[in-house]
Amino acid sequence: MARPIWTGTLSFGLLNVPVSLMSGERKTDLSFRMLDSRDRKPIRFERVNADTGEEVPWKDIVKAYEYDKGSYVVLDESDIKSAAPESHETVEVESFVDASQIDPRYFEKPYLLVPGKKAEKGYVLLRETLRSTGKVGIARVVVRTREYLCAVMPHEHALVLLILRYPQELVDPEEHKLPTGSLAEYRISSKETEMAEKLIESMSGEWKPDEYHDEFRERLQAVLTKRIKQKGGTTKVEDEPAAPHDATTNVVDFMSLLQKSLDAKKRTPAKKSAAVSKVVKKAASAKKAAKATSTTKKAATKPTKATKKTTTRAPARKAG
């Protein structure tokens, strides 16, 4: 069973609920080691002095802040601790806000708050009150040595603590060139809007996260398993077919695309197969035509014998 990050209290007003802070995520990334290609031995990364090239032991390493190019100020552990908050085992709710008011970009990392022994009543009281009012508790929490802004909200039978980003950590969309103005400025007609709404409605459904998987990780795991069985043999991974030359265009017929998307939702499986076959044939024809055009261009630019430069070969060198 997973160990708690810390055990303390969840506090709001005068109510204190003993809780344990547990990680709410599980890393599933595949980790890799760096090896020497010559003998397949692991590579060791060392801490070396930039000037002398000598390895520096951990006991001689200090933390410093580069306030100017090449200029540093060294900080002791006591300096860092003095900046840390005193409370390390408390989630103190400072206010409650409507859940809909929080921009999704602020949410960063989930944790679970698990009630301590005989603390279920206060836990359930807060959970159900947040649920009925649609509110979220805004609090501060210290995870290891850093203080974070966080949100406490109900999820099924749990109280979830979500680490929030500070406003300074978000990129302002105004820093980028984004399309603004009315629909008319982009020549979007009411018919196109209506069809887009119908398409979205036809594709709408319930959010079922269990249906989504990290397909890249699964494919990579299959490749690794195959390589392990082959004891280091080379596994050929086929590349996806290249897109036809006419696959992209700057001129987009939104009405046509929307209508095709709507029609595709109404087709029978047989019609879908026929449509797919037609598209594949069209793509193959386009690819063949593009290849023929490329061959013609190469033939037109190929130098003739009359234009080729003559090359004088060096005389053979006598043995001995």
Report on the structure:
- The protein has 320 residues and is an alpha+beta fold.
- Helix content is 30%, strand content 22%.
- The chain has 6 helices and 9 strands; from the N terminus they run E-E-E-E-H-E-E-H-E-E-E-H-H-H-H.
- The strands form 2 sheets. Strands 1-2-6-9-8-7-5 form a 7-stranded mixed beta barrel.
What characteristics describe this protein?
single chain; 320 residues; alpha+beta; seven-stranded mixed β-barrel; two-stranded antiparallel sheet; 30% helix; extended
In brief, what are we looking at here?
With 320 residues, this protein is an alpha+beta fold.
Q: What is the strand and helix layout of this fold?
A:
Elements: E1 6-12, E2 15-23, E3 63-68, E4 71-75, H1 77-83, E5 90-98, E6 107-115, H2 120-133, E7 135-143, E8 146-155, E9 158-164, H3 190-202, H4 215-229, H5 254-266, H6 269-301
Parallel strand pairs: 1-5
Antiparallel strand pairs: 1-2, 2-6, 3-4, 5-7, 6-9, 7-8, 8-9
Q: Roughly what fraction of the amino acids lie in strands?
A: 15-25%
Query: Which radius of gyration do the C-alpha atoms yield?
Result: 32 Å
List the uncertain runs. 246-250, 304-320
Give the SSE order as H and E letters.
Answer: EEEEHEEHEEEHHHH
Please state the structural category.
alpha+beta
Report on the biggest sheet: 7 strands, mixed, barrel
